[in-house]
């Protein structure tokens, strides 16, 4: 379980870094879809960590249930 948490944390860090980079690029480009791409990027920047937290919380609860 510890190895899975490390992999998920590393994957989340890479995804967040990519989302921050995309947000920066979308802020600088001049494209008709710039606003919707920026909104999607910012939305994902909030949702990805929340989902990761929820998955880890549920995994912890299931692990405690299996240990009992």
Can you give a write-up of this model?
There is one protein chain. With 68 residues, this protein is mainly α. It has one domain (2-67). The chain has 2 helices and no strands.
How many distinct folded domains? Answer: 1
Largest sheet: none
N-to-C CA distance: 17 Å
In terms of per-residue confidence, which ranges show pLDDT below 50 for 5 or more consecutive residues?
A: none
Strand content: under 5%
Overall 3D shape? elongated
Please bin the fraction of helical residues. over 70%
Give the assembly state of these chains.
single chain
Protein structure class: mainly alpha
Q: Count of helical segments? A: 2
Number of strands: 0
Please tag this protein with its features.
68 residues; mainly alpha; 2 helices; 0% strand; elongated
